Amino acid sequence: MASRTDTGPVAPRADLLQYLSDTALDADYARVTAARGAPVTSTARRRGIGPALGALLAFGMLVALAAVQTRSGASEAERESEALRAQIDDGRADFAALTGLSNVLQQQVADLQGTAETASQNDADLLADLGRFRTLTGAAAVSGPGVRVVADDAERTKPGGEGAVLDTDLQVLVNGLWQAGAEAIAINGNRISPLSAIRGAGFAITVNYRSLSPPYAVQAVGDSATLEARFVDTPGGQAWLDLETNFGLRFDMDTVESLSLPAAPAARLRVLYAERQGELP
After folding, report:
1. For residue 228, which of 240, 216, 245 has the smallest C-alpha distance?
2. Residue 49, class by beta-carbon neighbours within 10 Å (0-12 exposed, 13-18 middle, 19+ buried)?
3. Per-residue model confidence as pLDDT tens digits over 175-213
4. φ, ψ (nearest 5 deg) of residue 31
5. Looking at the domain covering 142-268, what would its CATH class be?
6. Where are the domains of the chain?
7. Does the pTM exceed 0.85?
């Protein structure tokens, strides 16, 4: 029976492929061949080497290709992971910056709202003061409750006679109404301002340089509940009681819930020489 020594001792080989080529035919194939009486020739050995060598080369190529693909896939995954981490870091930085900016803007909005509210309140106060000053100076038309007074000459009195209403009588009447608490006064529709003049011109009386004739309708805006009673207690009220009693002048005062007074003429509001000193109250 043939043994492994029939094929000769295996000498060391430097090249692995050359070794595989020389020993590709295994011992079992050699024994079968020897049993049939056919010698194992070098040609038969080369015929068996081809397929084995091809399979080995194909397997090696597959292993190498798999290794390359594995390394390539791992490198690509690492690059994508690094890029994703960089994007996350950038997003966090952007979010932190936007959060800080949002906080700053919110504080600025709150400050502006506070400033606007303060300015609005100041504007409202200034408008209220301006309205009050315009009312008191006669620069604005007004309406409100008050009293209506009708002053007229005594009956059967000649112009300029002893029973006629004089300019001084109307001055006393207006001063008494101011003292009683009137806030706005007009005579025959002519608003009284700080620069208005009530004076006589012949037998006529002028207000704001406009000639008037009796009866004289005096309207005064103020507290209708107290204005009439307080007027009676003023020197002007006492003077008109004397005029009624001693000279027959007619005087009638009624409480009115709603009066409308025009503004004074612009010429009676113009200041030419007086200048304000100090700050406004």
Report:
1. 240
2. middle
3. 999 999 999 999 999 999 988 999 998 889 999 999 999
4. -65, -40
5. alpha beta
6. 14-137, 142-268
7. no
